[in-house]
Design goal:
Layout lengths: L1 H15 L72 H4 L8 H4 L22 E4 L5 E5 L1 H4 L6 E5 L5 E7 L6 E5 L8 E6 L10 H6 L5 E10 L15 E5 L6 E2 L4 E5 L9 E6 L3 E4 L4 E2 L5 E10 L5 E4 L3 E5 L5 E6 L6 E7 L5 E5 L7 E2 L5 E5 L4 E3 L5 E4 L4 E3 L4 E3 L46 E4 L2 E11 L2 E4 L2 E6 L17 E6 L10 E7 H9 L4 E6 L2 E6 L4 E2 L1 H8 L8 E9 L4 H4 L9 E10 L2 E6 L8 E2 L3 E3 L12 H4 L7
Parallel strand pairs: 3-5, 9-16, 30-32
Antiparallel strand pairs: 1-2, 1-3, 4-7, 6-7, 8-10, 10-13, 11-12, 11-14, 14-15, 14-16, 17-18, 18-21, 19-20, 19-23, 22-25, 23-24, 26-27, 27-28, 27-31, 29-30, 31-35, 32-33, 33-39, 34-38, 35-36, 36-37
Length: 654
């Protein structure tokens, strides 16, 4: 036992002079002696020395007996603590150099290696490309996915906002973003914005207004869609309006019906009311309101409670109601053949269209108040065939049959005539006393001329020639004849002449393709009519164009000009006629006359500085031709407009 204590004291003294770094490792676990560090203390009495247990055991605060010794204690009692003498200052002080953190750390080779699952991993994908069925394809960073060309569907799989700078914004129009469906149970949408604020979202309207090369900041993030708030229960009186046949701010002749609701059996003291023009209130006896007042006005509906206060009100309804048909007046002309004037008016919605065939077709009136119609021949209109419609849809019609026929002819005095028997006719701007509307002395020159002379007076009717060789004067001869009458037994040459024939002189062979240009003023036509000349016949190389001197214009614009008092003398006509050779491309587009060369004719008129061209038959309701025919040289041998080829549709009615 004494030997054990000595050995222990010797070991303790030796350990006091050794650093912790110099403690040798025991070669054998059973014989290892663990040295104890002795730290200097402020107190003079040293602390008892303790021994560290082997590395695999917990340290013990006091020295314990090891397993086997030379002199074991049969009683198994521990050895008593042995006081240690105080050491000298040199022995008790720690080394001058303090330990560094590196010295106190476990050597690097003693640290355990990293586990496999702690190795560096690739970042989670921010999104996926989707195919047509919605299956995920390639995944990765959004910046890389967006570089894929073409239209894309991209699934957003990150909750963090992804910022892309200088992004081509037009590209967003080709991309559909959807939230990752794995975020189940959540209502999400994808926000594409110029910042992280919802207010800066790139809407389709904003993207469409940007230039194609616009770039900017793009923030892509998932935005939670809040649940829609529950609608509060409806309490109190709530007005319901069910309109039928209501046309918002549009003229109508059908009265609308407004059915109101919202007053229950328990609200017996309440009532419905209509407020008209925001100033007049009408309390209703039931829940149905049908407006009977004509005009343009607004109406809204309210529920009045038991105290007469407005409990609820409806939106405003803008009404335009016209229940009155337009006024239609029909006047058959006593001066012009087969002609009638229609006059109309409407105080509210205004006249809109006219029909002369019972509603099968309509002529737009465009605000005019009259319309002149000339039939090509005798025509009858059965009752309710002439219809006038206003903008609201009301209709007016003729109650009786309307017959248009030719005016009986008056004797003109045997071809020359002084004109005394010819009555003066009214015109739009005067009473017929104007000198320009008196009669002509029908004395014709014998020689060809370039301008028409009647009774020694040159009138505003000329002929010119236009072609490749330039413009030049054209020559024609004038003669009088009588046009055949339907049902007449005498020959066309019997009776007073009623037609002025102007025949153009033939052109040289090198000018055969030139155009003949007739120019005539409306006052000349009117004066010829007053001289009992009913038709003007223009002949070019055997083709004839017939014009009624009583007038051959119709249409809304023509009627408007006449109603405004525009004089006939202000109408300047130009008629171009060109002979076409058979077999040419032009001839194939025109009627083929068996007894005359093919010829085309184009008419135009200029009035008050405005030109209407080319004039045609019913081509436009504004200004068109009536009763004008182009035919062969025997055209006057048949009643006017009754040439056989015309019935087959082969005529040209210019």
């Amino acid at each position: 036992m004494k030997r054990w204590i000595c050995l222990l004291l010797t070991a303790a003294l030796a350990g006091a002079t050794c650093s912790a770094e110099t403690v040798p490792q025991a070669a054998d676990a059973e014989d290892a002696i663990v040295a104890a560090e002795v730290a200097p203390q402020d107190d003079a009495t040293p602390e008892p020395v303790t021994m560290d247990a082997p590395a695999a055991q917990e340290p013990s605060p006091e020295v314990t007996q090891d397993a086997a010794t030379d002199d074991p204690d049969p009683e198994g009692t521990a050895a008593p603590d042995v006081p240690i003498e105080p050491q000298s200052p040199e022995e008790s002080q720690a080394p001058e150099e303090p330990q560094t953190s590196e010295e106190s750390q476990v050597p690097e080779e003693s640290q355990p290696p990293l586990a496999d699952d702690a190795a560096e991993q690739e970042p989670a994908p921010e999104g996926y490309l989707l195919d047509g069925s919605g299956a995920k394809l390639q995944g990765g960073a959004l910046e890389e996915l967006l570089q894929t060309p073409g239209a894309l569907r991209i699934c957003i799989s990150t909750r963090s906002a992804v910022h892309l700078a200088d992004f081509p914004l037009a590209r967003l129009m080709e991309i559909e973003f959807v939230p990752d469906p794995d975020f189940s149970g959540e209502r999400l949408r994808v926000l594409c914005a110029a910042s992280e604020r919802v207010e800066d979202e790139y809407t389709p309207e904003i993207l469409a207004a940007l230039p194609a090369d616009a770039v900017g900041d793009l923030y892509i993030r998932l935005l939670e869609i809040p649940d829609a708030p529950e609608e509060p229960p409806v309490t109190g009186l709530h007005l319901r309006v069910s309109p039928e046949d209501y046309r918002d701010d549009v003229w109508s002749c059908v009265p609308p019906t407004f059915t109101l609701g919202g007053i229950g059996a328990e609200d017996a003291d309440c009532a419905y009311a209509a407020i008209i023009l925001d100033e007049r209130i009408a309390v209703l006896s039931d829940s149905v309101y049908i407006p009977r007042e004509e005009g343009a006005y607004s109406v809204r509906f309210v529920i009045l409670d038991a105290m007469g206060d407005v409990a609820d009100r409806s939106e405003r309804y803008d009404l335009r109601l016209d229940y009155t048909p337009p006024e239609l007046g029909i006047e058959v002309s006593q001066e012009a053949d087969c002609t009638m004037a229609l006059h109309f008016s409407d105080a509210l919605s205004g006249v809109e269209a006219l029909s002369l065939d019972g509603g099968a077709s309509w002529i737009a009136l465009d605000g005019v108040e009259s319309y002149i119609y000339t039939a090509p021949q005798r025509q009858s209109f059965a009752p309710e065939t002439i219809l006038l419609r206003d903008a609201a849809g009301n209709l007016s019609s003729n109650a009786e049959e309307i017959l248009l026929d030719r005016i009986p002819q008056m004797s003109g005095g045997g071809g020359g005539g002084s004109g005394e028997a010819a009555p003066k006719k009214q015109h739009a701007s005067g009473d017929g006393s104007d000198e320009g509307y008196n009669v002509y002395e029908l004395a014709l020159p014998d020689a060809p001329a370039t301008a028409l002379t009647l009774g020694g007076e040159e009138v505003a009717l000329t002929l010119g020639v236009e072609g490749e060789g330039g413009d030049q004067a054209g020559f024609f001869t004038a003669s009088l004849l009588r046009w055949a009458r339907s049902g007449e037994e005498e020959s066309p040459d019997s009776g007073d002449p009623d037609t002025l024939l102007l025949a153009a002189e033939p052109l040289p062979a090198d000018d055969a393709g030139s155009e003949r240009v007739w120019r005539i003023n409306g006052a000349v036509l009117r004066k010829l009519y007053n001289s009992d000349i009913r038709y003007l016949l223009l002949e070019v190389d055997g083709a004839m164009l017939s014009l009624p001197t009583q007038g051959f214009l119709a249409g809304t614009r023509y009627a408007q000009l006449k109603m405004q008092g525009v004089s006939t003398a202000e109408f300047d006509y130009e008629i171009r006629m060109r002979t076409l050779s058979h077999g040419t491309a032009d001839a194939a587009q025109l009627p083929a006359f068996s007894r005359a060369p093919a010829c085309d004719a184009h008419l135009r008129v200029q009035v008050e500085g405005e030109e209407y061209a080319p004039l045609d038959r019913d081509a436009t309701p504004e200004m068109y031709l009536c009763d004008v025919y182009l035919g062969p040289e025997d055209l006057p041998d048949y009643p006017y407009g009754a040439y056989p080829a015309f019935a087959d549709g082969a005529e040209t009615e210019a």
